[in-house]
Structures are given as structure tokens and as C-alpha cells.
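User: Second chain of the day. Same drill as before.
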Amino acid sequence: MALSTEQNKKLELALKTRYQQLINEVRQELGQEGEQHFADFAAAGGSDQGDESVADALADIAAARVDRQVNEMRAIESARKQIRAGEYGICGDCEEDIRFERLLAYPTAVRCVSCQQKHEKTHASENTPSI
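Assistant: Same format as last time:
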């Protein structure tokens, strides 16, 4: 069952709203990260290896957070492009319609629930470090 015009509009609004939130979060994160880094060193009156390690770890966490946000923004851009092309809400694996409820909960979904479960079982250990 294809999405109705009303459902498409609701999902498009959700995507647009989330995209704007992500832009604001990235701007805030990038602005605060630099300020916080300098504030920590200034408050410490210098730095030692421990301070530098903590600062590096915090910078890495901030960079990972921004990376995750940017990846979500790319997924949203892809979903919005699919909406314009009339291809939104179609599973990339089985080519069946993705249920509206799933898209409402996760608007950037590229697979139906069944295919997503198969994908997760098949690729579960891809990002797991091994010995």
C-alpha cells in the first residue's frame, strides 16, 4: 500500500524538522567544543599529560557525535530526494512498501522491518572487533 499524500506530507515535515534540529546541534557542538577545550586548559593553569588525554578524549567524543549527526543528515537528504522522485517508502531489499508506522518512527528507514531484521542478523558482527 503506497503512502497517501497526507502521510507523505507528515513524513516530509518530520524529516525537515529533524534536519533543522541536526543543523542546530552541529553548529552548537562545533562552537562549544572549541570553547570548552580552551576553557578547560585555562582553568587548569596549563596542562599535563592527563589533562591532554582527557581533552583529546572529549574532542574525539564530540567529533564522533558530529559525525553521527552528519550521517543522519545525509540519510535525511536521501529520503527527501526519494520523496521528490516518488520512490520513498520502498524497501531497498524486497522492493515492498515500508509501513507508514515504521517510517513515522524512523523516517530514514531504507528497509521494511522483515528485511532489516535479516540484515542485522547477517551483518551483526561486521563492526565487532575481533582478535
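The chain has four helices and no strands.

User: Great, on to the next one.
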